[in-house]
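User: Continuing from earlier, I have the next pair ready.

Assistant: Great, send them over.

User: Here they are, in order.

Assistant: Folding the first of the pair now:
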Amino acid sequence: QLVVVAKSAANGMETLSEFLPNSMVHGIFSSCPQRDPFENEQFSYDDYEGYQQRRIHCLDVRDYQQLKGVWESEIKPMYGYPLKVVVNEGAHRSSWQMAMALFFWFPRLEPQGLFFLEGIQETTTFRKEFLPQLIRDIHWCGSPPLDLIEGSEEEANEEQPCFPTIHRLLKSFHCELHICVFERNNVVVSMEYDLAESTPPPNALNASLCPVYSTH
């Protein structure tokens, strides 16, 4: 399965469906298109059956409960079609939405799955505050033994990843211009992530709130 998260445009969903004809593509939009992106025919916002057939889900892409509802009812039950790719397009200046998409969908990807995030503008808080923390996390190998560091045990315990949820599942990530690709490792997630682990923590868009940044 492949999930496309966007504000409203359905072009990306149509393109990916054509490029990956054997994939089951879901479109998650904060506002639904007035035209069927596949047949280019007019249909009503109230035509829920039509949206369902196209696997178009209309909801607030920043809302955990709504995302969880689609995940549990439409995507997770498709056992023969694991979620391998998520494409978050059209976020552009919404730093919170980009962080929310990563925290919700990345843990739900199958091992070795890919999360694509496009439209990361240079001036966004996501680029200035979020990505530096993730770069620090990917180089974090664990707290050193107490006898090799100065300070108390309490200070040593502060040496933790800024984003533990993402860190434990992240193999690598690569950014070029305004696009980043996040690669899942081989860790199998056997539990369902709750609200706290599926949403950005307070430090997501403020690096100074991550203990490692505030103490160094």
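And the other member of the pair:
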Amino acid sequence: EIDKENDVFEKFKEETAKTGFGMYLDDEPDPETVESHTTVDIDEDTGDPVRTQMVYVDEHTCIGCTHCAGVAQSTFFMEQELGRARVFQQWGDDDETIQIAIETCPVDCIHYVPYEELVSLEVDRRDQNINFKARLVNQGEYRSGASGPSTFTGPQKISGNMGSRCNNCPSRGCKDCPMFGVGKNPYFEEKEEERKLKAAKRRMKKQMEDSDRTADL
């Protein structure tokens, strides 16, 4: 069964490479320097993010397997200095592709978090120093407050790590899932309904405008 899953994964990567689907383009922001919270789509009416659910990689836990970056190539990339996966564009791929990418992670280090937490985590990450030689050890070895090149920062506090997660979370969608918005989080569900309604209205408005322009021709 594992071999079949690996075969499907490899075929998926080959197909995206051939078609260009999900590929990062040259005229987009440099993933090595951009922080994903700065490129989030903002609702013109409310000034809030269009989506409340964001994606974040726990780089201390990441083992650099490259699976997520191979599947959702417009969302994840491999950061060069430490060899960890990182999100450079929120929801650069469709929802299903991102969920597949999350489920391919062998150490469950990819989390759904609210926007406010994403901002805090990405700002905090600026000063992180991970022991890359310990990439196959969950949290690595670190010393806080020490001086010199051997000083490593500790793991970040991520809400998705505050509770127990299933294997290949969030495919089960458990009610008490610690990943933001996966279970029955009422705030998230309400915001998602608003987002979908607004998106449907925008599509309808665009269709009507296109129809009017066609009629004028």
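Worth noting for the second one:
The longest helix spans residues 186-216. The CA atoms of residues 113 and 180 lie 5 Å apart.
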